[in-house]
Design brief:
Elements (H helix, E strand, L loop, with lengths): L22 H13 L8 E5 L6 H15 L2 E7 L6 H18 L5 H13 L26 H18 L3 E7 L6 H17 L3 E7 L8 H10 E2 L8 H14 L6 H11 L3 H14 L7 H25 L3 H11 L6 E2 H8 L3 H13 L3 E2 L5 E4 L4 H7 L3
Parallel strand pairs: 1-4, 1-5, 2-3, 3-4
Antiparallel strand pairs: 6-8, 7-8
The chain binds adenosine-5'-triphosphate and magnesium ion.
Length: 389
């Protein structure tokens, strides 16, 4: 079929042609966004799941839903390794405040929160450029240098400004696992304060499973203040729809046996489904798509996935990190005990600690429970076993 109009989207964060299997999540988000500007209490949301399951796509949808409503201001940021939260927050927050400033209504609260923001970034060099309004110095506002304290003041000021215009604010944070423990703690406490004060600001985050890694007070607050919808592989029904709908829109039927084979081969993982759909689209020349077609593109799909999804992640690692992952893959199990890994590698648990931490920090593995590790990339073990060396 015509490659130019191929609707499948095997790319990070790209909206798929059929966003299947997430209706329950969207219903929860709809209620959450509706309650926010009414200042009804809400729990913040953290989408957790493995690589390529569609977390970023969901966050983008939440942003669009907020924009469509018009009474919830989205503030979007993507966390990255080794960048402080304050720095990441400054620019999107400023843009949101300027948007708020352009709306009708009293401006003093917006000015106050812009001043708070200016104080907040006072120590990190962020250029403000032309903010369009004179900033009045507001000494003692979000300028203590203590992140937890300042973040609460800053976000309170923003939420108050929004509330003044009967608006809510949703803080959208992608790749939450890269936010450091202390910073995440500060965010959690800030959400706690918003709740207590009935302020219309809450967070929707997305990231790898991090909850088991949190400790102490942060953990207990985070458990109460957030819901954790698990974003996982699609069911058989949703997978079949994800593959079939885009073809149907082009007048092409996909036989049951073909769609089911894509489901089995992809494990229902959204990224893999898109790759299968993409290659099938380019390969087939007539309706219906049959099981034989799926078999014919198998090799090229595997090659694409190995190159684009799996291998790129290995390239950034040190030899000792690679051997850690290879040893994990040899167990052929989804979760591996550190003790077993230590025995297999003949390296003490203590000596393995730093490698484990480095791989968690890079987002390659996570700890589903104490003493266990697992790959964050679906089917990564299979990839490694397919590609020894
Ligand atoms: N519900 C869905 N149905 C079909 N395809 C989907 C669905 N959600 C996402 N996809 C597709 O899956 C792929 C991965 O999506 P996305 O980048 O949002 O995943 P992610 O969970 O953010 O991954 P990562 O952890 O690597 O950032 C994209 O190609 C996207 O088009
Ligand atoms: Mg993502």
């Amino acid at each position: 079929m015509d490659k130019i109009v191929n609707p499948f989207s095997p790319n990070a964060g790209s909206r798929p042609p059929e966003l299947a299997g997430r209706d329950a999540i969207f219903e929860d988000v709809r209620v959450f966004l509706g309650r926010l500007p009414l200042r009804r209490s809400v729990q913040s949301i953290l989408f957790t799941g493995l690589r390529g399951v569609g977390k970023t796509v969901l966050l983008n949808e939440v942003m669009h839903m907020a924009e469509e409503r018009g009474d919830v201001l989205p503030v979007f940021l993507e966390a990255s390794e080794n960048r402080p939260l304050g720095e990441m927050l400054a620019s999107p927050l400023r843009m949101a405040l300027l948007k708020l400033d352009r709306m009708k209504g009293a401006r003093d609260k917006v000015r106050r929160s812009l001043a708070a923001l200016r104080n907040f970034v006072g120590t990190i060099k962020v250029k403000f450029g032309d903010v369009g309004i004179e900033l009045e110095p507001a000494a003692g506002l979000a300028d203590s240098g203590d992140l937890q304290f300042d973040l609460i003041e800053l976000l309170s000021a923003v939420a108050e400004a929004a509330a003044d215009r009967r608006m809510g604010v949703v803080l959208l944070v992608d790749e939450v696992q890269y936010v450091s423990g202390d910073e995440f703690g500060a965010l959690v406490m800030a959400m706690h304060r918003m709740q207590q004060r009935g302020l219309p600001l809450a967070m929707v985050g997305a990231g790898l499973p991090i909850l088991p890694g949190l400790a102490g007070e942060t953990k207990s607050y985070a458990e109460r203040l957030f819901t954790y919808p698990v974003v996982g592989a699609l069911s058989k029904e949703a997978s079949v729809r994800a593959i079939r709908r885009p073809f149907a829109d082009a007048g092409v039927r996909v036989e049951d046996a073909a769609a089911e084979m894509v489901y089995r081969r992809s494990g229902g993982y959204p990224y893999f489904i898109q790759e299968w759909g993409y290659q099938l689209w380019n390969f087939v020349g007539r309706s219906p798509v049959m099981r034989r077609d799926v078999e014919m593109v198998d090799a090229v799909v595997t090659e694409q996935l190995d190159g684009n999804f799996f291998r790129v992640r290995m390239e950034r690692l040190t030899p000792s990190e690679k051997s850690f992952l290879r040893a994990m893959s040899e167990f052929g199990e989804p979760e591996i005990r550190m003790a077993d890994l230590s025995r297999r590698l003949k390296i003490s648990l203590q000596a393995l600690g730093p490698r484990r931490s480095a791989l968690i920090k890079r987002g390659m593995i996570y700890s589903p429970a104490h003493g266990l590790v697992a790959f964050t990339v679906p089917l990564f073990g299979e990839f490694l076993r397919r590609n020894p060396v």
